[in-house]
Amino acid sequence: MSTKRSSKQRRKSAQLGALPLTSMIDVVFLLLIFFLVTANFSKQEHKLPATLQTEGGGVRSSDLQPQILQIRLQNSNPIFVMGEVVVDNRDSLEAFLSGLPKEPGVAIRSEPDVPISAIAVALQAARNAGFQKRSYVPSDSQ
Amino acid sequence: MSKRDGKSRHMINVDLTSMIDVVFQLIIFFMFTSQFGELRRTEIDLPRQPGDESAVRLEPAMIIDLTNEGLYLVESTSASLAEIERLAAIGVANQVPEDPFDVLIRPDRNASAIHLDRLLLRLSNTGVQRWKLATVDEGGGA
Questions:
Q1: pLDDT at position A61
Q2: A54 vs B contacts (CB less than 8 Å)
Q3: Measured between beta carbons, which residues in chain A are less than 8 angstroms from residue B135?
Q4: Residue A89 is nearest to which of B50, B130, B142, comparing CB atoms?
Q5: What's the pLDDT score for residue B140?
Q6: Contacts of A109 (CB under 8 A, 6+ apart)
Q7: Which of A98, B1, B45, B107 has the largest CB neighbor count within 10 A?
Q8: Are residues A18 and A62 in the same domain?
Q9: A18: domain range?
Q10: Ranges of each domain in chain B
Q11: Does domain B62-133 correspond to CATH entry 3.30.420.270?
Q12: Cβ-Cβ contacts under 8 Å for A43 (sequence gap 6 or more)
């Protein structure tokens, strides 16, 4: 009888001393799953900053005339025109823009049907070429 | 005496497992809901460019989504150009010199430039001077 009691008491004290970790582990796994899932929820987005310039406004007369880069469509493909130079991809455009003076900045304008991806290409090329002043001139063709 | 001891030992042994479960569930709930603000982005096929990593990563004052069909969305809700102009005017009126009002445009890469031009002209009318184009980096050039 005494042996039975002592083993019961021992079991009881062992029960009191043990921490119930099961629920904690459950919760930790829930958190782990949460972070694993949320880390892939959305793609990392980047930004291409530019200023806004409208024709006839926003530029002081003392400002240098920016170099104007036109984006047009040729056989449904965008081309980039500056003066007499015509290029059709970002690398060539970047190489060309790198050779231009940077102080006046670059103004980008496009034809209405040009896809916005081409504008992003022009802004990216201007940024990579080292232009600090990059502006986009929206055309008033409402 | 021994009976009282046993009683008090029994009272001290409060089961906290359920409490911890509930607390962690609440934490998870709040973590999820606090993410919803950022996740409330419309699925848009953004231009694929690496963007400007040196750009200051401040949250823009206003985010406008532009779909392939030329729909403008603010906070995932369709908005007319007049509404956007009104919202931008409020933002410009409340801007401070240290933190000028800027706009992030998230366009579909295949949307026509005319939709971007219309939007930028409206923003320009309200005095917005800085804007950013959202892109995703998928290692693609033009």
A1: 44
A2: 121, 124
A3: 45-48, 120, 124
A4: B142
A5: 44
A6: A68, A69, A70, A71, A136, A137, A138, A139
A7: B107
A8: no
A9: 2-38
A10: 2-39, 62-133
A11: yes
A12: B136
- The DSSP letter of residue B59 is P
Q: Does residue A65 have a pLDDT over 90?
A: no
- Please give, rounded to a whole number of angstroms, the shortest distance from the CA of B34 to a CA of chain A: 12
Is the minimum CB–CB distance between A36 and chain B shorter than 8 Å? Answer: no
* Average pLDDT per block of 10 residues along chain B, 142 residues long: 52 70 73 60 86 72 92 91 94 85 92 95 90 80 40
What is the CATH number for A114? 3.30.420
Which B residues in the span 57-96 are in contact with A, Cβ-Cβ below 8 Å? Answer: 57, 66
Q: Which class for B52: exposed (0-12), middle (13-18), buried (19 or more C-beta within 10 A)?
A: buried
B126 closest CA partner among B79, B94, B78: B94
> Same structural domain for residues A74 and A119?
yes
pLDDT in the model for residue A140? 78
Structure-token pair, residue A126:
């201007």
Interface of A with B in 71-100 (CB under 8 A): 71, 78, 88-91, 93
Residue in chain B nearest A141 by alpha carbon: B114
Looking at the fold, whether A124 and A57 belong to one and the same domain comes out as: yes
Q: How many domains does chain A have?
A: 2
Size of interface A-B (CB pairs under 8 A): 165
Average pLDDT over residues A31-41: 67
Flag whether A82 is in a domain.
yes
ipTM tops 0.95:
no
Q: CB of A43 within 8 Å of any CB in chain B?
A: yes
- Tell me which residue of B76, B51, B27 sits closest to B137, measured CA to CA: B51
Task: Quote the CA–CA distance of B118 and B129 in Å, as a whole number.
Answer: 15
Same domain, A56 and A34: no
Q: Chain A residue with minimal CA distance to B39? A: A42
B20 touches chain A (CB under 8 A): yes
Cβ separation of A27 and B24 shorter than 8 Å?
yes
